[in-house]
Each structure stands twice: as structure tokens, then as C-alpha cells.
């Protein structure tokens, strides 16, 4: 699809009635942005279909993006919501995905903007009902040749980003369009912006088992809320709702559909220092990755099968 600026339609009118504020959507420079009449906004880069900004109605950014993040397609974005597919991390022992780079190719591929649907405010509803849904597509047909060689399966995926005045929903449908089965993992690698990591608690993971990636991938049991006091990299299997609090107040609520795992990641000092695209170096104090996904095992999609999963983040 060729990028072209959409003419924004901020006001729509019905004869005899005052104009109603409408959702304002623009598609230019390889990104799509949308602003609701109530003021909430999002920005999605076609590279990786990465959500790079989500602001509340007061203009406060809800996602963390590194000051050194590459936004030119040369590297996966360090921040926002990169997508992990078809492998989480690397899987040297998994023949189908062993050749793929860390976290697969979805976050490094150019997605196509498939279009928008918005539920506009009308004279009979209020402007606070207006929302927008943006669809992005990726398929084996549009992958670069190198990636096709590394992962020779036939698939199509539609990623839907929905902004409402209450929150942000990101959901995927992955279809096996080929004639042989494939295994996959999927995850929304969400970088949440917070003010002070030392005041953050994550609840909803109490009594969950987790794999501790910074302690030899040992399986452990969580007791109480999760707090972050050093490098943290854990894969939980838990109930569908997670709450992030800061200083005792809820700052995010994450609900998951068909995404049984939650990865909690914070690089802390040394790991942040080792990442060239992580700036400022003490930025780990202002972010926490709470990543909804299906990554502890493999989802096998038989020919003709589809997988569907989504998260909804509110605050
Ligand atoms: O540096 P990357 O490839 O974006 O990955 C960042 C982190 O992503 C997390 O999801 C992984 O659990 C971590 O192990 C990893 O370090």
C-alpha cells in the first residue's frame, strides 16, 4: 500500500444539527495515527506494526520509548509495543524456528495498513463513545526473501489496534494458509511508562509459577505482589487480569484473551548500559515491560487453522 496522507475529518455535520467532533486519522510517512474527539491518541509505525505512542486525553504518554530507539526500520523499536512472532527469544532446539533472530521477524517486518473502522460520536451518542480500530497485515507473501528462507511457512496475520477513551486493545489473528502445520509463539512486548520503578507492584501473579530467565531458567513460585529490585526477566503463567500499581495507586490494568503468559522484564543498570539503543541509561527507572503472550509452549497451527489472542490495557 502506498502511503498517502488521509484528509483528516475532525468535524462531521448532520443537517440541522451542530457538527460533532470525529476521530481524526492520518496515514503518512510510514505511520498511522489517530486522535479521538476526547483527546486520547495513538501512533503506529508500519515497521513492526509497532505502537510507538499512546496518550491519554491530557496528553500524558502511557508507553515508554527509548530516546535512542531506531524508528527508521533499521532495528526493532526499543519501546512501545513491538510484536514477537513466531518465536519468543531464540529457540536453538526447535527445528522450525531455530534459524530466526531473537523474537522472530514480526517486529522487523514492514506491515501493511489495511484500513480503519471508527465508531464515531453521533448526535444520539456522546463524543465519549467514539473509538477507532486500525488493522495491519503481514503475510508470508510480503516477507523479505531471507526471512522466507529461514521460516518457509505460509501464513497471514491481522493485527488490530483499538483505541477507546477507556484503553488500548491490541489483538492478533494468525492463519495457517499453507498445507503443512507450523508451531508459533506470540507476544505483545509492551513497555509501560511509569514514574518510579521502586514504587511499582504488579498484582495478579501471586501464587503463579514462573520461569526465571536470570536464574538459569529455574521454575519458581511467586508469593505476593511482584516488585522490581534488580534485573528481572520472568515468564509467568497466570490468571487473565494483571494490575500495575505505583505508590499504591493503579496505573495500568491488563486483561488478556487467550494469552496465558505474562513476561515481566526490566533490564536494570547493567543490562540497560549494554544496550546501544537504550537511552537514557537510567530509563529503566521509568519503564516496566509487562508482556502478554503465549510463549511458554508452542501453539501448533494445522493447515487452515487460526490462532487469536488479545490484550486490553486500561488505566
Ligand atoms: O533486546 P530484545 O531482543 O528486544 O529483548 C528484550 C527482552 O525481551 C524480553 O521479552 C525477554 O524476556 C528478555 O530476555 C529480553 O532481553
TrEMBL record:
Keywords: Isomerase. It catalyses: alpha-D-glucose 6-phosphate = beta-D-glucose 6-phosphate. One of its GO terms (cellular component) is cytoplasm. Its EC number is 5.1.3.15. One of its GO terms (biological process) is carbohydrate metabolic process. GO terms for molecular function: carbohydrate binding; glucose-6-phosphate 1-epimerase activity. It holds the Pfam family Aldose_epim. It comes from the Eukaryota. Substrate binds at residues 78, 102, 107. Residues 1-21 are annotated as: Disordered. InterPro entries: Aldose_1/G6P_1-epimerase, G6P_1-epimerase, Gal_mutarotase_sf_dom, GH-type_carb-bd. It is an enzyme of class 5 (isomerase). The active site is at residues 189, 291. Belongs to the glucose-6-phosphate 1-epimerase family. Catalyzes the interconversion between the alpha and beta anomers from at least three hexose 6-phosphate sugars (Glc6P, Gal6P, and Man6P). This is Glucose-6-phosphate 1-epimerase.
Amino acid at each position: 500500500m502506498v502511503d498517502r496522507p488521509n484528509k483528516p475529518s475532525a468535524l462531521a455535520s448532520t443537517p440541522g444539527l451542530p457538527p460533532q467532533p470525529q476521530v481524526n486519522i492520518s496515514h503518512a510517512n510510514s505511520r498511522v495515527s489517530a486522535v479521538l474527539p476526547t483527546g486520547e491518541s495513538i501512533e503506529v509505525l508500519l515497521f513492526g506494526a509497532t505502537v510507538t505512542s499512546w496518550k491519554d486525553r491530557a496528553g500524558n504518554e502511557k508507553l515508554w520509548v527509548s530516546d535512542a530507539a531506531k524508528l527508521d526500520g533499521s532495528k526493532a523499536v526499543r519501546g512501545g509495543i513491538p510484536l514477537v512472532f513466531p518465536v519468543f527469544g531464540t529457540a536453538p532446539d526447535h527445528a522450525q524456528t531455530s534459524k530466526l533472530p531473537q523474537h522472530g521477524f514480526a517486529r522487523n517486518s514492514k506491515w501493511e495498513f489495511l484500513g480503519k473502522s471508527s465508531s464515531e460520536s453521533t448526535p444520539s451518542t456522546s463524543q465519549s463513545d467514539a473509538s477507532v480500530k486500525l488493522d495491519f497485515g503481514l503475510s508470508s507473501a510480503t516477507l523479505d526473501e531471507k526471512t522466507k528462507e529461514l521460516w518457509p511457512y505460509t501464513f497471514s496475520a491481522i493485527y488490530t489496534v483499538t483505541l477507546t477513551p477507556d484503553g488500548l486493545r491490541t489483538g492478533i489473528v494468525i492463519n495457517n494458509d499453507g498445507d503443512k502445520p507450523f508451531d508459533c509463539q506470540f507476544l505483545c512486548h509492551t513497555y509501560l511508562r511509569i514514574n518510579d520503578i521502586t514504587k511499582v507492584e504488579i498484582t495478579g501473579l501471586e501464587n503463579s509459577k514462573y520461569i526465571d530467565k536470570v536464574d538459569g531458567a529455574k521454575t519458581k513460585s511467586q508469593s505476593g505482589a511482584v516488585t522490581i529490585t534488580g534485573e528481572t526477566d520472568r515468564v509467568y503463567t497466570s490468571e487473565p487480569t494483571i494490575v500495575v500499581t505505583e505508590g499504591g495507586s493503579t496505573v495500568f490494568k491488563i486483561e488478556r484473551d487467550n494469552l496465558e503468559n505474562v513476561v515481566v522484564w526490566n533490564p536494570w543498570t547493567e543490562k540497560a548500559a549494554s544496550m546501544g539503543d537504550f537511552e537514557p541509561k537510567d530509563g529503566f527507572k521509568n519503564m516496566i515491560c509487562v508482556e502478554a503472550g503465549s510463549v511458554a509452549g508452542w501453539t501448533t497451527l494445522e493447515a487452515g487453522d487460526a490462532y487469536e489472542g488479545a490484550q486490553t490495557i486500561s488505566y
